Amino acid sequence: MKQENRPFASREMIEIKRLWRLTRKTLLFGLAFLIVFLGVGLVYQWVGVRNDLPKYKPPGELYDVFGSKMHLYTGGEGQSTAIFIAGWGTVNPYVDFYPLYEKIDDHTRFAVIDRFGYGYSDLTDRKRDIDNIVEEIHELLIKAEIQPPYILVGHSLGSLETIHYAQKYPDEVKGIVLLDGGSPEYYANQTPLTGVSLLQRFLVQSGVARTLYHIDGFAESLASERNRLEQLPNELKDLDRMSSLLKANNKNITDEMRQSQLNAMKVLEGKKPLDVPMTIITAGRFGKQDQDWMDSQAALTSWSSSGNQVILEEAEHYVHHYRPDLVAKEILTIVNE
């Protein structure tokens, strides 16, 4: 019986070896293709960065803050200043808050903060701890001679810096407007999406993102929560693309996400409620908003001794790109109080 099985066993082993050789060749070919593809992508991104950098000029002023440069864009006139603090990962705040400028600059001063790693500010080795971030914003406003009182306008995760600034420097703050900003309680229970940030950084650095921008409609679909950039002129749409390919998910932005849960817990240790008016503008997301988020938004009013909520049903997360007129109205309401 053993002798009769040998030819069959031999044929089976030959077939297994043939399949292994074919599999190995396929894997080696795939690996070689991946290495070449990544190499070409890295070179493409490097060349693109070299071409973009000379055109990436700050529209505002740069100030030395703890040994690195921070960017501040200002405008308008008035006795109070609206301080704009962008949400996490919104690479260019100057572009992001553009829909609000012309609607408030006749009534109040405004200043757009570029945290380290954002917009036209440098990268920093300082940890993205909430105390460091707020201290840097405070120092920047001093260096730029932007006098209080301030109306702090924070978007998304920027709510943490906004609230904590009012905790640390209460005499400087006249009021707060949160643009679909999350509550500290909400963020304290969220696992930081650091992996998502690292993946996005890889897509940029490998040249994949730069390639995808050549596909018609890609930029608009990527900005679906920003009303597909419909509020921006073409030159700012191009600047938005350039900013993303130069600075998206760099080490400071990634660390900011990594620290988000701890930062929220630190805010929870501070003063509550704040003795300033607070308006929470919540995106209804066309009736598709998560109920847990909506409940946390309603509860967020408890962070102020005089808090109120405005729900914009016809808006997504970047509410100021959908109804800048209503957002500006809420800001100016606090300015005029």
TrEMBL record:
Listed GO MF terms: catalytic activity
GO cellular component entries: membrane
Transmembrane segments: 27-47
Pfam families: Abhydrolase_1 (PF00561)
Key words, A-Z: Membrane, Transmembrane, Transmembrane helix
Location of the AB hydrolase-1 domain: 87-320
Lineage: superkingdom: Bacteria
Keyword DNA-binding among UniProt keywords: no
UniProt-listed PANTHER family: HYDROLASE, PUTATIVE (AFU_ORTHOLOGUE AFUA_2G14860)-RELATED (PTHR43798:SF33), MONOACYLGLYCEROL LIPASE (PTHR43798)
Name of the protein: Pimeloyl-ACP methyl ester carboxylesterase
Originating organism: Bacillus oleivorans
Lineage: Bacteria, Bacillati, Bacillota, Bacilli, Bacillales
